Amino acid sequence: MRSTHNSERRITERETTPGGFNIAPCGASVNSVFMQTKTPAERGIYWQNCRKYLRNQNDYNEFRKQKTELRRKRQRREWDEEMDAFKRDYDAGSNRRRKIIADVYKVRPQMDRATMEFDELFAQYEALWEDVMRIVSRK
């Protein structure tokens, strides 16, 4: 004997009439067959619940859109803050570098290359250049 699926069994039991099998719902969807057995009040409750579900889903989707928008704004704000901090560091390093380079070019004609009196100034310049390169490469 072939076992029928629960939904098939329920439909056949429900649609079997004392005079034999009722062919009226043949070709109808399961939802239509389901709704034919309900009273108008039960149908109203069913559709009211469907509307409530859709309303809740729309609220959920709106909430999700709002959360996504807030997250994107926060990420953009954090990105802008990081970029501003980077630009401040870079500008500070660039200004320091420009000042040291100006000092180097100012004293270069007076520099005694034999004794290298300005080793300290060039060491500062090299350290600053390394700092600037470290800041620039820190993306």
Q: What structural class is derived from the secondary structure elements?
A: mainly alpha
* Count of DSSP-assigned helices: 4
Low-confidence stretches: none
* Major sheet strand order: 1-2
User: Terminal Cα separation, in Å?
Assistant: 72 Å
H and E string: HEEHHH
As a percent range, the share of helical residues equals over 70%
Radius of gyration: 40 Å
Strand content: under 5%
Mean residue pLDDT = 75
Number of domains: 2
> Biggest sheet: strands, sense, closure?
2 strands, antiparallel
The total of beta strands comes to 2
The coarse silhouette is rod-shaped
Protein topology:
Blueprint: H1 6-15, E1 16-17, E2 20-21, H2 30-36, H3 40-107, H4 119-137
Antiparallel strand pairs: 1-2
What does this structure look like?
This protein has 139 residues and is mainly α. The longest helix is centred in the middle third of the chain and has 68 residues. The relative contact order is 0.05. The chain folds into two domains: 31 residues, no CATH class; 100 residues. A two-stranded antiparallel sheet has the order 1-2. Helix content is 75%, strand content 3%.
